[in-house]
Design brief:
This protein has about 100 residues and is of the alpha/beta class. The chain has one domain: Rossmann fold. The protein has four helices and four strands, in the order H-E-H-E-H-E-H-E. Strands 3-2-1-4 form a four-stranded parallel β-sheet, sandwiched between helices.
Length: about 100
Amino acid sequence: MSTFEKWFSLDGQVALVTGAGSGLGRAIALGLAEAGADIVCCGRRPQNLDETCNLIERTGRRALAIETDVGSSKQVKDSVAKAAAWQGRVHILVNSAGVMQGVRR
């Protein structure tokens, strides 16, 4: 392992990434996994989350998909509780989900 890898290793860390199903959120989740973190993937589209989790698991890291609409505080709290129950705690939080107020989905 290079000095760079030692300095920036995330081995043993758990990251929760919102918006992990696609785009920037997916890229961040994969980057954190490549650095050694296990990833909790949160987002609104289960199929996309499953795809991200499969990519993460190919890096040798663990991944958990949790369907979450960050526009719902209850769903966010439930997701954090599920993430903590899965690995004991969350060390890293990345808020990458986009939210538009007043727009119907």
